[in-house]
Queue: 2 jobs
Job 1
Amino acid sequence: DTGVSQDPRHKITKRGQNVTFRCDPISEHNRLYWYRQTLGQGPEFLTYFQNEAQLEKSRLLSDRFSAERPKGSFSTLEIQRTEQGDSAMYLCASSLVAAEQFFGPGTRLTVL
Amino acid sequence: QQQVKQSPQSLIVQKGGIPIINCAYENTAFDYFPWYQQFPGKGPALLIAIRPDVSEKKEGRFTISFNKSAKQFSLHIMDSQPGDSATYFCAAAKTSGSRLTFGEGTQLTVNP
C-alpha cells in the first residue's frame, strides 16, 4: 500500500498521560500536515512541514503539542498532559503538489 | 471565523438521484477548491478539485460547478448509489499556502 499510514489507529489514555502518534507519508511527498477532527466537524489544521522544516503552526497547537519530522520522512505528533478535550481523530496528510493533500486513516484518541 | 460554509448539513436521496452540496467561501485569495469523501472511521479521500480558471470540472459521476463572482462552488453526484452514502467535505486553500480550510460537512444517505 503506497498511501499515507498512521499508527496507532486507536489510542485510549488517562488524563494527564503523554501520547505520541506516528505518520508515514506517501514516499515521494515532501509536504506533511497534521489536522484534528472532532465528531461532526471538518478537519482543522494543526501544523505543516516541508521536508524537515516546520513552516506553520495553528493557534490550536497549544504548548502541550509538539510535532517533528526529523529526517523529512515520517513525522510524530506528541501530546503532553492529555486533557479530555484532546479526544479527537488526528489526521495526517501529505502532498507533492501544494494544496493537493492525501489523508491517512487517522488515529482516534480517547482521553478518559 | 468560519471561512467556508457548507450546506445542507444532511441530505437523503433515492438511488439514481442527483444530490447537490453547496459551499461558499469568504477569502478571495483561495485558489484551490477540493471535495473530500469520508466514511465512518476512515480518513477523508480526495474526490475532485477545481481551480478558479474554470467554471466546471467533471470526473466520472462527480461534477464541481464554480461561480467565482458569487464565491460559491458545488458538488453534484450523478446517478447516486447507496455506496455513495458518506460525509462530504468541501475545502479551500491558497496554493501558495499550506492549510486546507474545511466546511462543516454534509452527511449524504442514498436509499436503495
Note: The longest strand of chain A covers residues 88-95.
Job 2
Amino acid sequence: EAGVAQSPRYKIIEKRQSVAFWCNPISGHATLYWYQQILGQGPKLLIQFQNNGVVDDSQLPKDRFSAERLKGVDSTLKIQPAKLEDSAVYLCASSFQVSEAFFGQGTRLTVV
Amino acid sequence: RKEVEQDPGPFNVPEGATVAFNCTYSNSASQSFFWYRQDCRKEPKLLMSVYSSGNEDGRFTAQLNRASQYISLLIRDSKLSDSATYLCVVNIRYSSASKIIFGSGTRLSIRP
C-alpha cells in the first residue's frame, strides 16, 4: 500500500517569499492533516480536512497560511509571506475514520 | 492547559533497563489513544495503540486509565535501538469529526 506522499522534501527560502507544499494521502483516507513541527517540539495541528471540507483550522495563522483540498484527495499548504519563525518540518498525515494517522516524510522548510 | 501533556525528558538509561513514560490528557471526549515513535529527522510512526484493558507488544506495555485520564508506556529490557522520541497521541471525538492531538514528546536515550 502506498503511503502518504509529500513534496518537496526540503525547501530554503528567504523571508517574505512564498512557498507551497503538496500532499497526497493514502487512498481512501477521508481525513487529511497538516502539522507543523518545530525542532524539539511535538507536531502541532495546523489544519484538518474531512474530504474537501475544513474540520479545524483554529491554529492556522490565516494571515499568512492557507490550505486547500479541492477534490477531497491531495492538498496544498501555502505560506505567504514566510517569516523566520516558520522554519520547521511540515508534516502531512491521513487517517481512516477514528484511527491512527499515517505520516508522510515531511517537508523541511528553512527560512533565511 | 495543553490537551496532551508529557514529561519531555530526556530520559537517559542504560541498556537493559526498564523505563516508563506518562501522559495525561484533558479532554474527556478523547476516544482512542496511541504511542508514536519518532526518530531523529524522521516522521512519527505508530508504535502501538492503547486499549482500556492494557496491551502488550513484546517489550512494550501500554496502559490507559480513563478515570484519571492517564496513559503510560513501559519499555522493558531496553535496547540501544529504542533511543527515540515517544509521542503520546489522543484522538478526540467531536460532533462531526475527530481530531488527533500530539503531546510534545518524551526523548529517550539508551546508553551502552
Note: Chain A touches chain B at residues 31, 33, 35, 41-45, 48, 50, 55-56, 91, 93, 95, 97-106 (CB under 8 Å).
